[in-house]
Specification:
With about 280 residues, this protein is an alpha+beta fold. The protein has 2 domains: about 100 residues, Immunoglobulin-like (Sandwich); about 170 residues, C8orf32 fold (Roll). Helix content is about 25%, strand content about 40%. The protein has a 5-stranded antiparallel β-sheet with strand order 12-11-10-9-13. The chain has a 4-stranded antiparallel β-sheet with strand order 3-6-1-15, with no helix packed on it. A 4-stranded antiparallel β-sheet has the order 4-5-2-14, with no helix packed on it. Strand 4 and strand 5 form a beta hairpin. Helix 5 crosses helix 6. The radius of gyration is 19 Å and the shape is globular.
């Protein structure tokens, strides 16, 4: 599958801004399953970007605007090819996987993705409630993750007005409503509470025509679970599907804070913002 992604972030400031510093994480990953064919960034007012890779392996572009401006526009254009085959539903959790999962080495290596983070925090009673509904204690971590995904998909209503970008898992779960970010954070909170390494994924979703998938209005979010001996496998609780060729990966981290598409500071008054994302299928 080959896609073109056009992403525009627009900010309008109530008063003139005389300094603005920003980091963007919008460049899709280039790895064994996803090939980045082209990528272009356009910043208005014109600014030179400096690139680096953060601690989580994400591509970051930084820029500084020193002169006065009342508007900031960041546009990116990407072309990506993805080749993925269904895997997670065909995997059998073996004794060897179990031994790796229970080893201290495995736990130490993925500690960052087992510890709770600010966005993924859940109260113990919330975790217990969800685990009980899923079927009790974890026997097979892989099956538990699949069952958890299905349960959250059926328990949380997709509602763009219920939460905001700063909502934490312990806040969104009682609402039983939210967007892809909330589904992912709640799922991460439960998986980590049960000792299963899992990370947050930011990216794009291709919905296409006559599809039941949701979450393509802006960047999408889902979860990757570390399967011993196999690697990171993606699960999308918003849509209750394995993350395959419709899911275009940008970045990974502990939670949204690590992969926020645009982070910045400026000196000035209030602002209005808007975002537009278009994912077009070029080739099947």
């Amino acid at each position: 599958m080959k896609y073109q992604i056009e992403h525009t972030n627009w900010f309008h400031y109530e008063t003139l801004v005389d300094q603005s510093m920003n980091d963007i994480r919008l460049k899709p990953r280039n790895d064994e399953c996803q090939r980045l064919l082209s990528y272009r960034t356009e910043v208005t007012p014109v600014s030179t970007t400096k690139e680096h890779t953060d601690i989580w392996g994400n591509h970051v572009e930084s820029f500084f605007i020193a002169h006065k401006h009342n508007e900031l526009i960041v546009k990116t254009n990407s072309v990506v090819s993805i080749q993925k085959s269904p895997l997670i539903y065909m995997l059998k959790y073996t004794d060897q996987m179990r031994r790796i999962f229970n080893s201290q080495l495995f736990n130490d290596h993925y500690l960052h993705y087992i510890n709770e983070s600010p966005y993924t925090f859940l109260y113990k009673e919330q975790v217990d409630e969800i685990v009980q509904a899923v079927g009790g204690e974890v026997g097979d971590p892989l099956q538990f993750a699949l069952d958890l995904m299905g349960y959250l998909n059926g328990s949380i209503a997709y509602d763009g007005t219920a939460t905001h970008v700063g909502t934490k898992a312990f806040e969104s779960w009682p609402l039983k409503a939210g967007v892809c970010q909330d589904y992912a954070h709640v799922m991460l909170g439960v998986l980590r509470a049960k000792g299963i390494p899992a990370r947050y994924v930011s990216g794009y979703l291709y919905v296409g025509e006559d599809s039941a998938l949701v979450g393509d209005a802006a960047t999408h979010a889902w979860v990757e679970v570390m399967v011993p001996g196999i690697g990171w496998l993606g699960l999308d609780p918003t849509n209750n599907v394995e993350a395959l060729e419709n899911h275009i990966r940008i970045g990974t981290g502990r939670d949204y804070a690590d992969v926020s598409p645009l982070q910045g500071v400026y000196r000035g008054g209030g602002q209005k913002s808007d975002v537009k994302v278009s994912v077009t299928l070029l080739e099947q």
